[in-house]
């Protein structure tokens, strides 16, 4: 990001940051210098990516993350603190994020930039790197000194080209800076090539500048993660390729040597009389076919030839064993190449945009109607108060302790679609934890659901009043199907068997059981193998979050229609 990029992002997002509480901090998986700050903000939770020396932006993508040592250190220092202010320092690519206890986060987007945490006296408490640079020393306890400032304003070449600047570049650059400060921002992106807060040739306009930053770095992040993950495997591959090359050279050498020795044996037999005379004269060498050959004068002509034939056989055996080893190594190389491909594909699939409804339990019916259900009493309350409209369908398992379930915009809905939603309502209820095989589910229209209790009565959180006739679906089986839907990214889908089988060819069917972790492991293993991908630990965590409780796999359907 250039200074103008940072300025535009701060102008657009400063108010979004101020007041947010730092809920948690992670590293991107395998990239320990890229941080995800999970923020609890006024209107919603946000994920802020900070990559020192590169970028800062909110991300809408679900990215696999882990807790590295740097993330742990940051958590200990600034977790639960609230962002009180955001400022750019000295018109440089340096951002200061003030926190509620007087501490500051410094994000340097300059080349070789750092992420630092300073105390209320501006002394260093944390840095992504501790080092003595040419112009400053970065060590714990020392005052923070920013990188040396450039004396002259340098207008980035891409901005010069975008604005067609030939002369008075600095003056025009200042005008651009002023317009950005005034909020005149035109988010524009040329995917994989460039992004700017102004329109430029060949670009597509975005909804927000943050979105174009997020989109631009998406592919770069994938490539960085792939490179990091495959580095070790690539190292093994190169060693193997070198060994294979050496063995191939050895095989060629063995075969040439065997041929040479056989030829000598033949020549000895073809020149029988000459060799016999040499033996009689006690000669140890004889010249045959312009080549000098060693012989043993104590042995007969035939035995001398046999020595060469036997040596040739030894080299043939060496060649045979080397070829067997070569085949085994080539098999291993093929396995490594498959593993690299799987890792690359798995990583490409691991980053995707999360939709608004994914904070709830969700599914799509056979005919594509969105079903959302609450994960707890708070979400049940939120769904009914904020999202349930009069024409929506509300479902609830006929048991105390169940998810409020909604079918959105059910125009021309079929009985099958309502049953699909009933499976979600039934499965995410206490019935699953009790190990029941089935439970009744009722449904009504949104207009029949109210949060207002009768006069003098009280409704607990997550409870509702239902007015009018209830429509019952009897004995809805507690069977959930889970599959991996793969396009440009991987999405775990869940629902009735009918709805999931309409979308994917590989899926598992689960019911209440007695294992959680092991069932999640098995689901990930089965579906990863069926879809030829390598699964990260985040995939297991997602599957665990989907399971209604302890479960067992009762059916496996693969593309070949094999069933286990």
TrEMBL record:
<feature type="domain" description="NFACT RNA-binding">
    <location>
        <begin position="359"/>
        <end position="468"/>
    </location>
</feature>
<feature type="coiled-coil region">
    <location>
        <begin position="226"/>
        <end position="346"/>
    </location>
</feature>
<dbReference type="Pfam" id="PF05670">
    <property type="entry name" value="NFACT-R_1"/>
</dbReference>
<protein>
    <submittedName>
        <fullName>DUF814 domain-containing protein</fullName>
    </submittedName>
</protein>
<dbReference type="InterPro" id="IPR008532">
    <property type="entry name" value="NFACT_RNA-bd"/>
</dbReference>
<dbReference type="GO" id="GO:0043023">
    <property type="term" value="F:ribosomal large subunit binding"/>
</dbReference>
<dbReference type="GO" id="GO:0000049">
    <property type="term" value="F:tRNA binding"/>
</dbReference>
<dbReference type="GO" id="GO:1990112">
    <property type="term" value="C:RQC complex"/>
</dbReference>
<dbReference type="GO" id="GO:0072344">
    <property type="term" value="P:rescue of stalled ribosome"/>
</dbReference>
<dbReference type="InterPro" id="IPR051608">
    <property type="entry name" value="RQC_Subunit_NEMF"/>
</dbReference>
<keyword id="KW-0175">Coiled coil</keyword>
<dbReference type="Pfam" id="PF05833">
    <property type="entry name" value="NFACT_N"/>
</dbReference>
